[in-house]
Amino acid sequence: MKHAASMIVDKDFIISTIDNRLYGSFIEHLGRAVYGGIYEPGHPQADENGFRQDVTKLIQQLKVPIIRYPGGNFVSGYDWKDGVGPKHLRPRRLELAWRTIEPNQFGMNEFVDWSRQAGTDVMWAINLGTQGVEDARQVVEYANHPAGSYWSDLRTSHGYRQPHAIKTWCLGNEMDGPWQIGQKTAVEYGRIAYESAKVMKLVDPTIELVACGSSSREMPTYPEWEATVLDHTYDQVEFLSLHSYYGNPENDTATFLGRSLHMEDFIKSVTATCDYIKAKKRSKKTMMLSFDEWNVWFHSNDADKKLEPWQIAPPQLEDMYTMEDALVVGCLLIALLKHSDRVRMACLAQLVNVIAPIMTENGGQAWAQTIFYPYMHASVHGRGKALVPLVQSPKYDAKGITDVPYLESIAVFNEEANEVTVFAVNRDLANPLPLEVDLRSFGQCRVIEHIVLENQDLKAVNDAANPNRVVPHNGGNAAADGAKVSATLSKASWNVIRLGLN
Ligand code: AHR
Fold it and tell me: Is the distance from the beta carbon of residue 204 to the nearest atom of ligand 1 less than 6 Å?
């Protein structure tokens, strides 16, 4: 077979109108995500609230539509009330999930203020580890009830007369995991999630809720967990969560690049489980998925084991991302887009310093990691309709994954901008891949730009000493001839081909 790939897309073959929340992210009270990340009073770039403007500006470039907060494992031991009211009265607590000290100088109200500045919505996770139904109703009343009740008036007394109007809420975090504070069986979790959801929606019927799915597809209780949890919660929730992290500890890059196929399998089997419960319940409602933790995570594992406990904001989970990690993130973004009819929300975990596209130095600079770029390109240019990708590509076999296509690709049609954007990864580590895209129903196309992220060294990173080692360039060779677009995708590259329509 000739070493070349092709893709046909048609404006009538639509996977979905993409929910912008597919490009969400996540900030946990963990490591230097909050303290030293988004919030560092006294930093030369901090505003009067202590919000680092250099970091905010980078986040604004990503156009992050929604951010999950405050955890993560952290939330299962967190009392949200510790983080509101006068700062000098807030307690310092032992934080048991990550074994640090939580000073509580940043909490719900600061996060809402910060999110407005960053131009993003809040996805608030409640604690269903050590807390339960009563706290669930209180936190929604504090955040969203206009006035005239104990908790809403408390918010007003803290300086926030207007309700925060938080629309999206997670019912706990990874409650199946033995590491989770207050881990539960599927039945225990299903019951408490249902009862919490009930009171939360009695307080504010406009909110949307996410129930916890398995914390990964490797969990022994997967997918029975999903079925049991949904059996209890189906009528009260709009989303079921998925979490998955990928790594390359064995330095097998071909396999690592194929891991997005595992993500797709995971999505398909969770979708099937949701539809099984839908059928069982004779329900008219279709459950949507929230892939609210996904990323590459493995570089920092050894360093984390050596950290001393009970520090404030130690450097935890500080993965330094390589060029090959950026390719994997690109493939994972395409996988999410391919399933965007059911995956309506997703969160790149996380956003700053902790397994993050953005890094900072305490008191110093902020910079973009390699994975920042595919995430930014997808978030900025991947809005509109995801089109069915009819792909022909040569394939390879990797460890535990067969038939990995060298080409991973999808096109998004943005009707408003009158543009089609093709996202494409060439997984071939040794050879360029000629690509032909047939956009038959779109008529004449013109190439606006062909952005490429590539580097001869797949282990190259952006670090404090050289924050711009891996950056995209505009020198791709895509060319249009009527409705046909051809390009040569460099070996091991991430490509964004933006096409204007006449
Ligand atoms: O994102 C880091 C951690 O990964 C989160 O706290 C937890 O939910 C997951 O296991």
Answer: no
Beta carbons of 201 and 194 less than 8 angstroms apart: no
- Residue from 38, 172, 26 nearest 105 by CA: 38
Check residue 148 and give left, alpha or beta (phi > 0: left; psi -120 to 50: alpha): left
Q: What does the alpha-carbon distance between residue 271 and residue 393 come to, in Å, rounded to a whole number?
A: 26
Nearest ligand 1 atom, CA 28: 6
SS3 category, 366? strand
Q: What percent of the chain has pLDDT over 90?
A: 99
Distance between Cα 243 and ligand 1 center (Å): 9
Rounded distance between C-alpha atoms, residue 227 and residue 364, angstroms? 48
293 lines ligand 1 (CB under 6 A): yes
φ, ψ dihedrals at 487, nearest 5°: -155, 155
Catalytic site residues?
174, 293
Cβ atoms of 352 and 56 within 8 Å: the answer is no
Measured distance CA(176)–CA(97) in Å, rounded? 15
Reported as half-sphere exposure (CB side, CA atoms, 13 A), residue 185 has a value of: 2
Residue 395: is its pLDDT beyond 90?
A: yes
243-267 burial, b at 16+ Cβ within 10 Å, e below that, comes to bbebbbeeeebebbbbbbbbbbebb
Query: Locate tokens 């991302």: which residue?
Result: 321
Residue 18 is predicted with a pLDDT of 98
Q: Round to whole Å and give the CA distance between 292 and 215.
A: 10
Mean per-residue pLDDT over the chain, rounded = 98
Residue 255 has pLDDT above 80, yes or no: yes
